[in-house]
# Entry
Amino acid sequence: MTPLKLPTALLHPQANACLAQWVAQLPKVLPPQVVLNAADLVNFDSSALAVLLGLRRVLTQKGSDLKVEGMSPRLLELARLYGVLDLLQPS
# Structure
């Protein structure tokens, strides 16, 4: 499975559509860990974290895990502030 990729902007108005699109594109058989590349994300609010956590929840229900790579310092800081960084970067 090719890594998923965050768009350059992910704000509240796009959040539900973004999550729904990813979920619809998931294959029936998932690898143990799905990688999502966040390197392009520059314009976001806390809704981006909600989308990532929603995707993680769906993947966990299907027996897979989510690993977010390429998080900007600002996104890392927001994830730490909300206490969810470990959920998005499993070891």
User: Anything to note?
Assistant: Strands lie at 4-5, 9-10, 33-37, 43-44, 65-69. The chain has one domain: 4-22+30-88.
